[in-house]
């Protein structure tokens, strides 16, 4: 479903991704973990060409992209398959919850308003936000806004769902309600890649966990292996530091 080979990303003198190779199977849920600045966001942003790769190639579904001059048409074609959820929810403040979800259906997918509203309500129900369909983002909590943002992305029915730390902008008491929604999505057929600092969540929900450090994949394996029997000392060190910090809270 996703195939990345020899992916590199440089910003001026900063070599951020240093040769990334992996594939993700259809319906798989992959969690990306790693220290701050290791290149997690850069990697997930390269997957839908929010960042242009400096070298290598990416294939999503049947759409193959090579680094170099990437046309708008190619970017558009690749994004047909992907949906992205960001740390900052990026809802349109002047649109209601339902309008936020139906906007892409109407303007991009050219669906009728009635059809879009029907589908929009379906996805809002899925994330437990149907009752707030007529509210504006400012009237919602951060967790509710993120659930709407997730519904908006799901409504476009992407083949691949990409999420970059979807809970890290939330107050701690709101994190669980969003993780609960993501947990339910992960159990469905959609292929999901999620960057997260919620290690316990990654352990519980992901089919495989990718540990990135210094712009390289250090280890990519099922959670039981990564968390209980890490092969690489760097993985073990990261986990011990991180889990220690989590216990300290
Ligand atoms: N637009 C940019 N221009 C220049 N350098 C950038 C840009 N975006 C990211 N970088 C650099 O790339 C490196 C990796 O950043 P990235 O955001 O991918 O890290 P991350 O693993 O997502 O970290 P965090 O856990 O803090 O979100 C950092 O050194 C960062 O400074
Ligand atoms: Mg990041």
From TrEMBL:
<protein>
    <recommendedName>
        <fullName>ABC transporter domain-containing protein</fullName>
    </recommendedName>
</protein>
<dbReference type="InterPro" id="IPR030679">
    <property type="entry name" value="ABC_ATPase_HisP-typ"/>
</dbReference>
<dbReference type="GO" id="GO:0015424">
    <property type="term" value="F:ABC-type amino acid transporter activity"/>
</dbReference>
<dbReference type="Pfam" id="PF00005">
    <property type="entry name" value="ABC_tran"/>
</dbReference>
<keyword id="KW-1003">Cell membrane</keyword>
<dbReference type="InterPro" id="IPR027417">
    <property type="entry name" value="P-loop_NTPase"/>
</dbReference>
<keyword id="KW-0547">Nucleotide-binding</keyword>
<dbReference type="GO" id="GO:0005886">
    <property type="term" value="C:plasma membrane"/>
</dbReference>
<keyword id="KW-0029">Amino-acid transport</keyword>
<keyword id="KW-0472">Membrane</keyword>
<dbReference type="InterPro" id="IPR050086">
    <property type="entry name" value="MetN_ABC_transporter-like"/>
</dbReference>
<keyword id="KW-0067">ATP-binding</keyword>
<dbReference type="InterPro" id="IPR003593">
    <property type="entry name" value="AAA+_ATPase"/>
</dbReference>
<dbReference type="InterPro" id="IPR003439">
    <property type="entry name" value="ABC_transporter-like_ATP-bd"/>
</dbReference>
<comment type="similarity">
    <text>Belongs to the ABC transporter superfamily.</text>
</comment>
<keyword id="KW-0813">Transport</keyword>
<dbReference type="GO" id="GO:0005524">
    <property type="term" value="F:ATP binding"/>
</dbReference>
<dbReference type="GO" id="GO:0016887">
    <property type="term" value="F:ATP hydrolysis activity"/>
</dbReference>
<dbReference type="InterPro" id="IPR017871">
    <property type="entry name" value="ABC_transporter-like_CS"/>
</dbReference>
<feature type="domain" description="ABC transporter">
    <location>
        <begin position="2"/>
        <end position="239"/>
    </location>
</feature>
